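PROTEIN DESIGN WORKSHEET
SECTION A - STRUCTURE
LENGTH: 172
TOKENS:
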């Protein structure tokens, strides 16, 4: 079938399988349109010691919307009060990056959410199954592309400079 006929069929809607014509881009478009919708994920937070805490005490509820990110701990009665994660909210303009940080055995992955706290860039690491991590990273990246915040631009610029220094140093 010629390209013109494919476009005509896709634009008139006379054929039920117009998704064949869009080369799979409709799911990307749908995802970018729904990026601003609030969605919640239950996952575990990975701490700086690179160990997960007890299953019942360190699960967090991650709420993502186009305006903000909420990290709410799911607290059980047996959780230690000393090391309990506090609920935090970040404005979406302060989110700098979200990337898969590590792939683990057993279908698990860790993603890193980098943010600006007003003085410096910090991050939180979260672990979940790989499919959920990919979905969350895709959602954050769609939001970051739509917002184009100064924080994001500065973070990417700093990351690129650091990569250049590492590359230049390795050439020496």
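SECTION B - SEQUENCE
RESIDUE ASSIGNMENT:
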């Amino acid at each position: 079938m010629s390209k013109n006929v494919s476009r005509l069929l896709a634009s008139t809607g006379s054929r039920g399988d117009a998704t064949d014509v869009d080369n799979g881009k409709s799911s990307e478009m749908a995802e970018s349109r729904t990026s601003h919708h609030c969605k919640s994920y239950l996952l575990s937070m990975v701490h700086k010691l690179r160990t997960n805490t007890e299953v019942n005490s360190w699960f967090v509820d991650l709420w993502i919307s186009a305006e903000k990110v909420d990290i709410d701990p799911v607290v059980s009665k047996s959780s230690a009060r000393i090391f309990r994660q506090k609920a935090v909210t970040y404005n979406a303009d302060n989110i700098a990056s979200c990337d898969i940080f590590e792939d683990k055995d057993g279908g698990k992955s860790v993603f890193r959410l980098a943010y600006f706290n007003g003085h410096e860039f910090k991050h939180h690491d979260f672990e979940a199954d790989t499919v959920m991590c990919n979905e969350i990273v895709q959602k954050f990246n769609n939001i970051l592309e739509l917002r184009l915040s100064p924080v994001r631009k500065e973070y990417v610029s700093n990351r690129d400079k650091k990569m250049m220094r590492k590359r230049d140093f390795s050439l020496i």
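SECTION C - NOTES
The chain has one domain: 34-171.
The helical segments are 3-12, 25-33, 130-147, 150-171.
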